[in-house]
Design a protein that fits this description.
This protein is α+β, with helices and mostly antiparallel strands. The chain has 3 domains: about 160 residues, Alpha-Beta Plaits (2-Layer Sandwich); about 70 residues, MutS, DNA mismatch repair protein, domain I (3-Layer(aba) Sandwich), CATH 3.40.1170; about 140 residues, DNA polymerase, Y-family, little finger domain (Dna Ligase, domain 1, 2-Layer Sandwich), CATH 3.30.1490.100. It is about 35% helix and about 20% strand. The protein is built from 14 helices and 12 strands. A 5-stranded mixed sheet has the order 5-6-1-7-8. A 4-stranded antiparallel sheet has the order 9-12-10-11. A hairpin with a 6-residue loop joins strand 2 and strand 3. The chain is globular. The chain binds a DNA duplex through helix 3 and strand 9. Belongs to the DNA polymerase type-Y family. InterPro entries: DNA/RNA_pol_sf, DNA_pol_Y-fam_lit_finger_sf, DNA_pol_Y-fam_little_finger, DNA_polymerase-Y, DUF4113, Rev_trsase/Diguanyl_cyclase, UmuC. This is DNA-directed DNA polymerase. Keywords: DNA damage, DNA repair, SOS mutagenesis, SOS response.
Length: about 425
DNA sequence: TCTGGGGTCCTAGGACCC
DNA sequence: TCTGGGGTCCTAGGACCC
């Protein structure tokens, strides 16, 4: 493609979407240089199915969601390296990557574990195609140098177009990982299939196609008002965004969480109440830790319990039950107690359960908790206890000190047979050099 | 034996009020 | 036989994201 001249623009803001290619697989490879060019797949919790693949693994035909037990022989045959997912490692690598982005701009929204939006306002600097491409390459190069992770950069004037640009950068190797999408680039928009547009799901696709909307350009050309009345306000925004009119801001200030979920499948199906109770206590404990880490307190707690939706021997059972606290809390003991109460409401004897989750809602700032007239006790003591507990677990490792309710046998725990070491967060996991 | 986990936003509909 | 209308708040569930 030929750009006749570097075109200056009067847009005052540019947005970059930077994401790490094959993030989980790439994280595993960083610490295992011997796996260069070796196909890698990373499995979901419980080693159930494939959730990440290296380029080599994609070329071998492995798909997201492939069942591990089905593809196991082929994995061995093709010499594909398999990992259980290691979120301690991925989360830490994610933090490092974002730290590097912050050298380029302070306007960062961490959108997901492997994607961030970066905002570049003019600030006197007039960006053009050439300088923006250079900026993208510089980000790519710096991240690669300091973390060993490969990233792609898409740059445009709205988040949705930055997503489009990122996709183009990723799909076309000749752009060398960076693509700047100028808002009036109709030819490129035409190339993007409607189901590849951010926010357009599989369900929505056929409905749009029925209206003759097959490409991103078709959607961009649609009447926003008609889209709103025929669909919803979210899709209307997409139309504007595709036309370079920004409706979605880069959220640089992390908004406080509105809910916290801790939910996991069991390592095997369980029917015994006591084991499920232990899992619930452990999940409630984890939820409490998350809550306190963000200085929040929960007004509501609910749990959901279900059997396997794929089971052939019994009907699918799924039930949730929740309570509202008299006063917002972040105390593990109270969370466990409430969670167990809820569990009793949904547990039926004789079923084989697959998964249980604890959900905290109605989150508020822990400082400003509304005191209830019904609870008159000294909360200073229990707060101090929680702080000591959190400090110990932070410095000596998770679960150094914990509540007896979560059990010690952990019969309910998920399978992670092929997990890699927590290279970056645990000294004890580093290989010993002799 | 075996199918992830954690989030947000929007909408519809019910309860309730004046 | 007639059976308002409009507003708010809350909840459940759907849809979507990575």
């Amino acid at each position: 493609m030929i750009f006749s001249q570097a075109k200056t623009s009067d847009h005052c803001q540019w947005i970059a979407l930077v994401d790490v290619n094959n993030f989980y697989a790439s994280c595993e490879r960083v610490f295992r240089p011997d796996l260069e060019n070796v196909p890698i797949v990373v499995l979901s919790n419980n080693d159930g199915c494939v959730i990440a693949r290296s380029e080599e693994a994609k070329r071998l035909g492995y798909k997201m969601g492939d069942l591990f037990h089905v593809i196991k022989p082929k994995l061995r045959q093709t010499g594909t390296k398999v990992f259980s997912s290691n979120y301690a490692l991925y989360g830490d690598m994610s933090d490092r990557v974002n730290e590097i982005y912050s050298r380029f701009t302070s306007g960062i929204e961490v959108y997901s574990i492997d994607e961030s939006f970066l905002r570049f306002s003019g600030g006197g600097v007039v960006h053009n195609l050439a300088t923006l491409t250079e900026l993208g390459q510089s980000i790519r190069q710096t991240v690669g140098q300091y973390t060993g992770l490969p990233v792609c950069v898409g740059i445009s004037t709205t988040k949705t177009l930055a997503k489009v640009a990122n996709r183009i950068a990723k799909k076309n190797s000749h752009y060398d990982g960076v693509f700047v999408f100028e808002p009036d680039n109709k030819a490129q928009l035409q190339q993007i299939s409607i189901d590849d547009v951010w926010g357009i799901s599989r369900r929505l696709t056929p409905k749009l196609q029925a209206l003759g909307i097959y490409s991103a350009l078709d959607l961009a050309s649609a009447d926003p008002k008609r889209i709103r009345s025929g669909f919803n306000v979210v899709l209307e925004r997409m139309v504007h965004e595709l036309n370079g009119i920004s409706c979605l801001a880069v959220e640089e200030v992390v908004p406080p969480r509105k809910s916290i979920i801790v939910s996991r499948g069991f390592g095997r199906y369980l029917s015994e109440f006591s084991l499920i109770q232990q899992a619930v206590a452990a999940h409630a404990t984890r939820a409490g830790e998350k809550l306190r880490k963000q200085q929040l307190a929960a007004n509501k707690l609910s749990i959901s319990l279900r059997t396997s939706p794929h089971g052939k021997d019994q009907v699918y059972y799924k039930k949730s039950f929740g309570i509202t606290f008299a006063e917002a809390t972040s105390e593990t003991a109270l969370l466990i107690k409430a969670a167990e109460h809820c569990l009793r409401k949904v547990y039926r004897k004789g079923l084989l359960y697959q998964k249980v989750g604890v959900f905290l809602g109605g989150l508020v700032d822990a400082q400003g908790v509304q005191q209830s007239i019904f609870t008159q006790k000294d909360v200073t003591k229990s707060k101090a206890l929680m702080r000591v507990l959190d400090d110990l677990n932070r410095s000596h490792g998770r679960d150094t000190v914990r509540f007896a309710a979560s059990g010690i046998d952990e019969d309910w725990k998920m399978r992670q047979k092929m997990i890699s070491p927590r290279y970056t967060t645990r000294w004890s996991d580093l290989p010993v050099v002799r």
